[in-house]
Amino acid sequence: MRRYVALLLAQFRVSAAAAMAYRANFVLEGLLSLVWIGLALLPLLVLFEQRESVNGWDASASLVVIGYFTSLRALLEGVVNPSLNDLIARIRTGELDYVLLKPVDAQIAVSASHYAPWKVVDLLGGIAIIVWALVRRGEMPTAGQLALGVMLFGAGAIAMYSLWIACAALSFRLVRLDNLMFLLSAVFDTARWPVHVFPGLWRVLFTFVVPIALITTFPAMGLLGTLTPLGALGTVGGSLVMLVLSRLAWRAAIRGYTSASS
Amino acid sequence: MIDVRELTKHFRVHRRPPGFGAALRSLVRRRYEQVVAVEEVSFRIERGERVGFLGPNGAGKTTTLKMLAGLLHPTAGHVEVDGFVPARRDAAFLQRITLVMGQKSQLVWDLPPSETFALNRAMFDVPRAQFRETLDELTALLDLGTLLDKPARQLSLGERMKCELVAALLHRPTTLFLDEPTIGLDVSMQLAIREFVRAYNQRHGATVLLTSHYMDDVVALCPRVIVIDCGRIIHDGDLRGLVKATLPDKRVSFTLPAPLPDGDLERLGTLLVREGLRATLSVGERELPGVVSHVLGTLHGTDLAIEDPPLEDVLRDMFGKRRRAAAAESAP
Question: Fewest CB atoms less than 10 Å from the CB: which of A53, A124, A200, B17?
Fold first, then answer.
């Protein structure tokens, strides 16, 4: 455990140092993050200008979902995506060999190998949106709701990570996987909306097949106090099942790794 | 100690003829072939030995090294390194070995090598005091000086390889798999790396298995060589034995006091090189004493040197004979 904490810290240090080696880039990316957050809010504000609520979701409740979405996207674009893009490149060049030669779990080592540190702006932005939404709502969550909201944020992060790791496991066989990653990112984008705004079949798809609902809608409902205990259990259980499945996919992929030739 | 018994690795590869039509057809129906990379290879290397692993491109050297390092799962056979089965990738096993690949890099491109070293220290859980001590030792042995603080992308190929070696050895492995560690380096850098490998082997009693296209590396470092061709071992023994068995003739070089027709020299042996007054002959072992006394006594030759043929020639001859034998066998 101590080794993994040291490893994650060392990787963060190296990655942050690499990012800061290009100072102008660092500042620009931070500013761009702010612009993106603003743009992400725009469709929601336009929609709720026209109507009070959509399928039971009003503007401030939907803003909480956007807050969750922005924070999780910060994790995705700040840690998961850079790391897995790096993994795909390493599989193609055979440099993954050097990861597999280390006495640490390769999945942990590659999952947090690269960071985009300026995404911390997005993470803070997401939290600010949630706070703003709660203030607008005029109703602060109880301590229990807050604890559930934080716990389900973790569950959502695990569910999202599992989807991406399963996709990365595929890249061992397919090697060129950029398009699948783009598709997954596009699907993830729907998580900015509460799952209930989608019509029937889509809602089923986003709850059970590509469980986007686990990532943002249910955690937001947890914070707002509208999630049933069964829903909370389902969110945690579902994310853990996804984690186990993605772990199995990863292990199968490592067993079949053929390494690029010298 | 490395124990390899009947190690085999087959790859399934997709084959298609060239051309757009074939590319289209391969979308619908793919043809796969089994490629034999390594076939029933067996050898044993004792602790502290330095062994050269030789063979033409595609012979199966790198595949074997990768199986020994636990990167590839063997199709069949048994491998044990220091009592561990590599494919299981036990942490204790990975702590004891290292694999250096001359064509691949583990240094973080945009940062100084010291950052990669710190990362490896965390991964191998090396105590800080030991890390400092090892780094100082390796820095001194490789004469790294200020290189540690230069971004990896600004290092020359030779400097980069030195840093790759440090990154690979910081956890003080006792088994070194070196795959072309001197590729692309100039002669002085090759020499430096070679001397370093020898010093590390002697200081730490480490086992070294080395592949290299530069025969000088192998001649200088490895008393024993294993030669592999088409996935099979065709020689395992000392270097002299290999040379003796394949090209037993010696090379005799000398300088003549005055010009002499080629014909006169060709009567003594096969004339290999003639540059002005300097000549090199290939002479059978039995004829050697007579030729030497003739060159020195009758021809008054000077600067006489007797050498084994270069390892390149020995291997070329060896692989050439095998190819011809295989072609003759498959001919109707």
Answer: A200
Task: Return the structure tokens found at A97.
Answer: 């060999």
pLDDT in tens, A223-255: 999 999 999 999 999 999 999 999 999 988 888
Give tens-digit pLDDT for B281-326. Answer: 999 888 999 999 999 999 999 999 998 888 878 888 888 887 788 7
Residue of B nearest to A14 (CA): B115
Distance from the A130 Cα atom to the nearest Cα atom in chain B, whole angstroms: 36
Q: Given an 8 Å threshold on Cβ–Cβ distance, is B71 in contact with A11? A: no
Pick the CATH number of B248-307 from 3.30.70, 3.40.50, 3.30.160, 3.30.2430: 3.30.70
Asked whether the beta carbons of residue A18 and residue B110 sit closer than 8 angstroms, the reply is yes
For chain A, give the mean pLDDT.
Answer: 85
Calculate ∠ Cα A1-A122-A131, nearest 5°: 100
Contact A7 B122 (CB under 8 A): yes
**Which residue type is seen at B278?**
R
**Yes or no, beta carbons of A101 and B71 under 8 Å apart:** yes
Contact A94 B120 (CB under 8 A): no
B12–chain A nearest CA distance, Å: 10
**Where exactly are the structural domains of chain B?**
2-6+42-243, 248-307
- Give the number of other Cβ atoms within 10 Å of residue B51's Cβ: 21
Closest Cα in chain B to A108: B123
Q: What's the whole-number mean pLDDT along residues B133-146?
A: 86
C-alpha span between B44 and B234 (Å, rounded): 15
Position B91 scores a pLDDT of: 92
pLDDT in tens, A183-221: 888 888 888 888 888 888 887 777 777 788 889 999 999
- Using the Cβ of A31 and the Cβ atoms of chain B, whether some distance falls under 8 Å is answered with no
Within B127-273, where are the H helices?
A: 128-142, 157-169, 187-204, 215-221, 239-246, 262-266
DSSP character at residue A76: I
Q: Higher pLDDT residue, A29 or B269?
A: B269
Longest Cα separation, chain A: 63
Query: How many CA atoms, within 13 angstroms, populate the side-chain half-sphere of residue A184?
Result: 22
Fold category of B2-6+42-243 in CATH: Rossmann fold (3.40.50)
- The pLDDT assigned to A209 comes to 74
pLDDT confidence bin for B169, thresholds 50/70/90:
very high
Cα B246 versus chain centre, distance: 19
